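Hi support team,

I'm opening this ticket because the web form for multi-chain structure prediction keeps timing out on my end. I have pasted the exact lines I submitted so you can reproduce it. The total is 230 residues across two entries, so I didn't expect it to be a heavy job. Is there a limit I'm missing, or should I split the entries? Thanks in advance, R.K.
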Amino acid sequence: GAVVSQHPSWVICKSGTSVKIECRSLDFQATTMFWYRQFPKQSLMLMATSNEGSKATYEQGVEKDKFLINHASLTLSTLTVTSAHPEDSSFYICSATQGNNSPLHFGNGTRLTVT
Amino acid sequence: ELKVEQNPLFLSMQEGKNYTIYCNYSTTSDRLYWYRQDPGKSLESLFVLLSNGAVKQEGRLMASLDTKARLSTLHITAAVHDLSATYFCAVEVNAGGTSYGKLTFGQGTILTVHP
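Hello R.K., no limit was hit. The queue was backed up. Here is the completed structure from your submission:
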């Protein structure tokens, strides 16, 4: 079946540094990818929608200059957390789809810890 | 703004018992999803419900959708310990084809099944 892979699975970084998370669709072309954030014991909250070849659409309250999203190809979207702070520590999950009426697939998630 | 509410948020069950998790949403939806999440893991897709009256079953889990009442249920039959996890419903509102795959999640229901 279709697989969406995230890398890394976990990352620890120091406050003030930047970290990049990759989301890859391994056996299909993902026209749209979504980035979610999940704080401990909470639900998933959508951060942004990423369409291949265009600028990401951010949800209200999500800083686009802090969470940089690039969807340069049909199989890869990246989320870069810039100048990370401890409050950015969270579980980041991507999902991907080929488009209308196609299945939606979630990645395995990336746990970010900022010290 | 779309709101998705689950209840109960916490559910402690004895093995062998039946119970239902409810998912209410506030606006007309195109699709409703149920997911399972184990601690530290990403989401596992359980069901996708597409139309009013849809009912799907897999093992001890059965999901249904009533679009008129804006209500979905996840029914657990003869619970076993392996079903212990957090269960999320998620609603997709696809406004004119521009939001396919964009989900709003419920708060999640933490299910614990005891011997």
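A quick check on our side: Chain A touches chain B through 20 residues (CB under 8 Å). Let us know if the file doesn't open in your viewer.
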